[in-house]
C-alpha cells in the first residue's frame, strides 16, 4: 500500500474527481455550461461476469444519499449498498459490515481485485469496523472502491488517499 500511496502522490492522484465544465450552444443560440464529474472507469475485461454485474449495479446507485439502515434509491448505507448490489446476482450477503467482514476469505491489500470488500474504522488506527466498500478498479497504480459515504452518499473513491489508508482495517474476497 505504501508503494501505491507514494506513486499516487507523485502523480497527484488519489484526490476526489474534478468537476468538468463543458460549453455548448442551445438551439436558440445561447451558451449553456454543464458541470459533471468524469464517468466511472470501465470494468476490466478479466473480471468475471457476476462480479461485473455487481459492480454495475453498485454504480447505478451513485448519487443516492446516505441513510442509516437504507437499502433503496431514497437512501442507502454502506453495507446496504453491497447487500443490494450482490442481490442483483442472487447472492444473499450479510446485512451488517461486521458480518460482511467474515463472509469472505481474508486477502492482502496487494492482492485486491474488483469485487473484493474493503473495511474501515471510524478513526485512524482503529480496529473496530464501521464502514465497508467494494473494489471497482484495481491496477498496480490505483485501487478505486465504491461505498456510501455519510456525507456524500454513494460514491467511488481512491483507496490511496491518506483518509482511507489511515482507516483501512482489512479486505476479504467474497464467497460466490
From TrEMBL:
It comes from the Bacteria. Keywords: Hydrolase, Protease, Thiol protease. InterPro entries: NLP_P60_dom, Papain-like_cys_pep_sf, Peptidase_C40. Pfam families: NLPC_P60. SUPFAM superfamilies: Cysteine proteinases (SSF54001). GO terms for molecular function: cysteine-type peptidase activity. The keyword Zinc-finger does not apply. Residues 48-175 form the NlpC/P60 domain. One of its GO terms (biological process) is proteolysis. The keyword Cell membrane does not apply. Belongs to the peptidase C40 family. PANTHER family: MUREIN DD-ENDOPEPTIDASE MEPH-RELATED. This is C40 family peptidase.
Amino acid at each position: 500500500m505504501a508503494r501505491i500511496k507514494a506513486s499516487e502522490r507523485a502523480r497527484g492522484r488519489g484526490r476526489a474527481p474534478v468537476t468538468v465544465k463543458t460549453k455548448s450552444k442551445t438551439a436558440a443560440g445561447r451558451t449553456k455550461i454543464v458541470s459533471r464529474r468524469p464517468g466511472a472507469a470501465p470494468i476490466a475485461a478479466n473480471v468475471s461476469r457476476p462480479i461485473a454485474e455487481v459492480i454495475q449495479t453498485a454504480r447505478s446507485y451513485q448519487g443516492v444519499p446516505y441513510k442509516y439502515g437504507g437499502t433503496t434509491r431514497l437512501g442507502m448505507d454502506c453495507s446496504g449498498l453491497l447487500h443490494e448490489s450482490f442481490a442483483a446476482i442472487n447472492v444473499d450477503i450479510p446485512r451488517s459490515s461486521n458480518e460482511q467482514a467474515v463472509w469472505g476469505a481474508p486477502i492482502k491489500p496487494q492482492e485486491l481485485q474488483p469485487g473484493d470488500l474493503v473495511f474501515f474504522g471510524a478513526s485512524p488506527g482503529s480496529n473496530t469496523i464501521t464502514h465497508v466498500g467494494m473494489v471497482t478498479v484495481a491496477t498496480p497504480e490505483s485501487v478505486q472502491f465504491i461505498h456510501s459515504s455519510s456525507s456524500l452518499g454513494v460514491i467511488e473513491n481512491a483507496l490511496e488517499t491518506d483518509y482511507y489508508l489511515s482507516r483501512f482495517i482489512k479486505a476479504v474476497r467474497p464467497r460466490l
